[in-house]
Specification:
Oligomer: single chain
CATH architecture of one domain: 3-Layer(aba) Sandwich
CATH superfamily of one domain: Vaccinia Virus protein VP39
Number of helices: 3
Strand content: 15-25%
Structural class: alpha/beta
Length: 100
């Protein structure tokens, strides 16, 4: 069953990126990733777009640690500058505690 989900996910991702490629220019000056988690979206976008700078936000301390490790590797492998911030973004200008 797990293998079936991987196949479905592969085709879903392929369709999603095909739509993005049609609507977004190939060269991107700045990408902002809100809720960057471990940086998977950053990796995927770098496969299909040329991006100069990335600003990534991840409020979870645990996820931020993983994001930092991954973005360091990504920067070494690609000619992209990535700045990461341990903050969440929302409608209110407020300080909140995240439990994880």
């Amino acid at each position: 069953m797990h293998y079936l989900f991987k196949i479905i996910d592969f085709f879903y991702q392929k369709k999603k990126y095909s739509v993005l490629k049609k609507r977004i220019p190939e060269n991107i000056d700045i990408l902002i990733d809100v809720g960057a988690h471990h940086g998977d979206t950053i990796s995927e976008f770098l496969k299909i777009f040329q991006i100069k700078k990335i600003y990534a936000f991840e409020p979870s301390k645990r996820n931020f640690k993983e994001l930092k490790k991954k973005t360091e590797k990504i920067e070494k492998q690609n000619s992209v500058k990535i700045k990461i911030y341990p903050y969440g973004l929302g409608e209110k200008n407020d300080v909140m505690n995240l439990q994880k």
